[in-house]
Amino acid sequence: IEEVYxxxxxxxxxxxxxxxxxxxxxxxxxxxxxxxxxxxxxxxPKQGSWLASVNLSALVALMPFNIPGAxxxxxxxxxxxxxxxxxxxGDLSVAPVRKTQLVHVRFESADPKLAAAIANAHADAYIExxxxxxxxxxxxxxxxxxxxxxxxxxxxxxxxxxxxAFREREKLVDLEGLQSLPAKEINDLSSRLIEVRRELSQxxxxxxxxxxxxxxxxxxxxxxPAVLNDALVQRFREASADAESxxxxxxxxxxxxxxxxxxxxxxxxxxxxxxxxxxxxxxGSIKTQYDDAQSQERELVRxxxxxxxxxxxxxxxxxxxxxxxxxxxxxxxxxxxxxxxxQETAQTDDLQTANARxxxxxxxxxxxxxxxxxxxxxxAFTLSVMLGISAAFMLxxxxxxxxxxxxxxxxxxxxxxxxxxxxxxxxxxxxxxHLFFDPKQQGFAESxxxxxxxxxxxxxxxxxxxxxxxxxxxxxxxxxxxxxxxxAFGQV
Length: 492
Prior knowledge:
Strand content: under 5%
Number of helices: 15
Number of strands: 2
Oligomer: single chain
CATH architecture of the largest domain: Orthogonal Bundle
Radius of gyration: 61 Å
Shape: flat
Order of helices and strands: HHHHHEEHHHHHHHHHH
CATH topology of the largest domain: Helix Hairpins
């Protein structure tokens, strides 16, 4: 299907595949058949010598002994198409152009017109083969998608029926609204339960305080915060305090049987009685409030549990509903996709475009491409230069002679005393033993003095009585060195 409706032609694998198709044997055979290349002299098998016509297998069969491997049939193919294809593919080259979507198709032949004709025919054959392949794949894909569309239509209808049956069975109208109601109820009940439990905690504290003071006098109950905060209790306490203050004030002036004292005592007794009666009523109401708070808590807990169960039940229904709905949407998307693809195929069946085109047709070459004389000359020159450089490095590596003072110290592991220059005398009969005194050889004399100084410094701890001058081979200047060195020491 992807090949029919378009691959990613920018992918590297796509181009590598097309390059291999361009080099394939079926494409070569198509060109050979179209141009009748089997009749062309270039693609006919070369006539060999008289030995090629000898049937080796028949000769081996006549021999009285077996020759290993000689019985194999190595005779060339008798099919001219196979021979022509082999020669064709050997002369064909397909080379992609870097960083482009282009490819060079080349064919080498001694006949320039034939080379151009085959290159153009090969490109045309590739385009035609790709168009034929697209037509075949389009027809095959269209047939398969039609069958698949029928299956998807049945699957879509079945999934829609399941969804509708579930909606009717569970009596679902607005799933979003049903889900929001229990959630809001849970939030309200949770807030109300927190408030009731706070009130229950206060009522419980007051109840246990009152119950602990049930046998205590009324004055002790008045110290309970829940009783003390009652408005009537506070009013009666104030009235009792005022009456008690009045009795105390009158007691300073009158006796206990004085009418005013008797009236004040009666007023105080009435105030205390009212206070005690109100404290009793408040104490009883605290027990009632505690019981009511407990009942409210239990009822709210049950209501909250029912709301949670309802919420979870709707959640399970929503999960099942979403699953069925997703199945319907998935089947509908697949059905629409296949339906649209089939319609596209029907509209484009008569319009088949190639995925490639010829940018620059091959033309008949005006000059041969082989041999490339300039390249051969340049290659020979480059190789000769490289060979000369390699030989120079090799000779340098094989040369083990001494070249410098550092080289001497490295090889013999001894400190160098000095260097005497090579003296070339014009008169071959002249002696080199007295060069130290020759005014023209001041450089030589100075070198001898350097050697003398080095020897003197080396004998600071232990004096040298005898100095031996030697060399690896004769003729290196032992006598010259010894004589002139002796002259130098004689001047010390």
